[in-house]
Amino acid sequence: MKQKSGKAALYMRLSRDDELVGESNSITNQRKVLKAAATELGYSLTEEYIDDGVSGTTFDRPAFLQMERDIENGLIRAVFVKDLSRLGRDHIAVGLFTEKFLLERDVRLIAVHDGIDSDTGDNEFAAIRNVFNEMYARDASKKVKNACRIRAASGEPIGHAPYGYVKDPGNSKSWVIDPEAAEVVRRIFALTFDGKGVAQIADILAGDKVLTPKNYWIAKGIQKGGSSSVADPYNWKQSSVASILKRQEYCGDIINFKSSSRVFGSKKRRKTPESERLVFKDVHEAVVSREDFERVQKLRAGTKRYGSKGSRNVFSGLLKCPDCGANLNFHTNPKNEEITYYNCPNNNVPKRKTCESTHYVRSDYLEQVVLADIQRITAFAKADEEAFIEALVDSVGLSTRQVSEALTAQLERIQKRIAELDVLFRRVYEDSALGNLSTERMLKLTRGYEEEQSEMEEQEKRLSGELTRIAEQAGGIDAFTEMIRRHSKIKKLTPSILRQFIDHIDIHQAERSEGVWTQRIDIYYSCIGKIVLPELHRIKQKEFKVITRKGVILVLTTRPRVEAIAS
Length: 567
Hints:
Elements: E1 7-14, H1 16-21, H2 27-40, E2 46-52, H3 62-72, E3 76-81, H4 84-87, H5 91-104, E4 108-111, E5 116-117, H6 126-153, E6 165-168, E7 171-177, H7 179-193, H8 198-207, H9 213-220, H10 238-246, E8 254-256, E9 259-260, E10 270-271, E11 278-280, H11 290-300, E12 319-320, E13 329-332, E14 340-343, E15 361-362, H12 363-383, H13 385-395, H14 401-433, H15 439-486, H16 495-501, E16 502-507, E17 511-513, E18 516-525, E19 529-530, E20 543-547, E21 553-557, E22 563-566
Parallel strand pairs: 1-2, 1-3, 3-4, 12-16
Antiparallel strand pairs: 4-5, 6-7, 8-11, 9-10, 13-14, 14-15, 16-18, 17-18, 18-19, 18-22, 20-21
Helix pairs in contact: 5-6, 7-16, 8-10, 12-13, 14-15
């Protein structure tokens, strides 16, 4: 053959799907085919471009992009591929590359196994082949997605293990805790309980030279994709901290189908609605307890942690308006920066005045009330734990064992009747089919059975919910009692103590009666809700004072219902 001038590009690509086909698409085999074809057509100068392990549905491939740049710079006069599917499996993109990009630059294209040579005009079926190549990729994609759905439905994680976990060396389908990273995750949750925001936490981690998740994986040799460049390995972003605090997987859960791609071949993904996600609880060991995770979610949905003058808001996210349900806002008095307070945001904004009252409460006053109530509860538990647990059971409205057993028996009777109705349905249809029952009679009976079954199912749902509530409250009492044991001597109200003990606090509007202002404060404790404990003479009720900016002394007394009376 006559020697051709210019260099020929030998482009080879192998994807994960191609590996399953066998040796025919291997890089070794492609190289052999292309070198033989280039030699036969007289190209002695060749340059190899190899994309190994890259899908043909994307054109963001390092070697392919380099080949395009070399063609642009006039370094390549011909492109050899084993077949058009090596260029890609998107018929529009491949068509633009072959019919426009190469043609405009007078670069020859040879697809050896497809019998295509642009110099001889043997490319009439190229467009059709490109369509079939894309159809092949679409079909392969569907098969992969179906396989993922099957795995996801069985509770197998289909995504990468999040920071804090690694794949189990003995079982790649499950995760185990990575002790070093998990300790950082626990620290982030602990700092949140201490009242720190995501920006503060990011600064603390950076200051302590804690590697960011990405750089931690790079340092450990864990492949996660993306860039491997390291600028500042300790530069924690607020978004990274926030993402960790939102990940339900740290409770021990698996969540599949959190996102999906709408368009074939596109890297853009959309968040899947929560109703369409598959959630499997308690699959692997938890890094943080479910209770702590849920408290953090409530906390982060709350108000800002600092006032306009930088004063700290220890009750961030915990104070609620019982009238409109809003989180109370934190403020600093502009005339006296030592005074901080809370009020309802839906009262003092003219365009959004949907709440009739301010629900104003002083921070220092509230801190003393809450601390006094926690101290009263812990003192009661320490003095007589058995009586304390008994009082908790009565306070949260737990049914007695007899009531629980009665509910269970009632539920079993209902479930038995539902099963009987299913049998009756079958008998009615059989009698109708055999001619033993008229159509009119059959319809009348089935309507009656359907109404009864619908009513039974509603009762079943209600009773099941009631029994579940009782079981959860029983577990909540155990958890709350254990927490009391760990904190029997609380002398100061800290953000960490608050977030462990308190679920939320309802601040009612202060009311005046016979010259006395009374403000009701309902404290809802973690795990069990509002507590009403009996008065015990041996547990002294605490009184304290708050001096207002006008010089009025408020004498405050804690009561079992946590009412603070100011006089």
